[in-house]
Give the backbone structure.
Amino acid sequence: MLGTLVAVGLSSALAQAQVQQPEVSPGYVRDAQGRLIRVDFALHDRVTVDLLARTAGPGARADQLHVGLALKHSFGVDFPAEEIWWNIRHTFLGVSAMVGDGQLGLRATLLESAYLRHDQGAVILIPANVDIGIPAPFDIALEYELLAVELDAEAWALSMIDFANLAILIDFIRDPQYRHRLAVGPLTAYGIARGTQLESAWTHYFVPMSGARLSYGWETASGRFALGAQLQCVGEARLIGQALRWQRRCSTGAQSEWTLLAINDSPINVLLAGVVGEPREQFEPDVRLTWSVSAGLRLSFPGDGP
């Protein structure tokens, strides 16, 4: 009798403990041992640090090892009354070191951002006594980068400063979650680079809205796998000393990212990424197509989640 009562009591306590077990957050599952495993990697509400090691293949930067770190933050903002949804992405203080060819270089970017706007109505309203609606079957994206610096670490000398570049894109696919994109639009940029003829000379380059960017992107619903491609061509004014020269420049590339796994009960994800593209100075002599493969970790901060 006593044994029966004890068994019933233990069964009741176990059942109560199972009932009181905390609910699993969206995007996670709990295994048989009670451990949380992340299965969804949303585009928004993310705060992560990426640590990547990269090796490059033939071209202007062959045989180089790149080690990088970046803080990333993205989130979504809804305006239900206006039927507008924003996805905002920031990359802060991206830093990478390049080792190879007997050289050591550093690159740092203060801020890289994308503001992606989806409008369910596909109409631009002009306020008036009677509002005027203009059909707009596209979404709008604003992409910009502020203060990217390249440094020759051996000589401790600056080799390039990109002060700013800005692209205003229209997206024709109009995916409300921005997991599928096809966007095109103008761009502008300004920066300086150390000249090749005189060590102390600097070349100023300016793109006065005379460039264009075409971007394509696709991502799985879980966010674990993503593909992207980009084509960019500009008409660029270069000021070398007091001589002004106008030239064209194009670059193209494709990249992919795969989150291989999420480590149980830990804010760590293992990444594998690949890039195929052309270097910046496409029209310089003896420039070939390059590729690179990266592997690394993505560390999540508290509050990160789908």
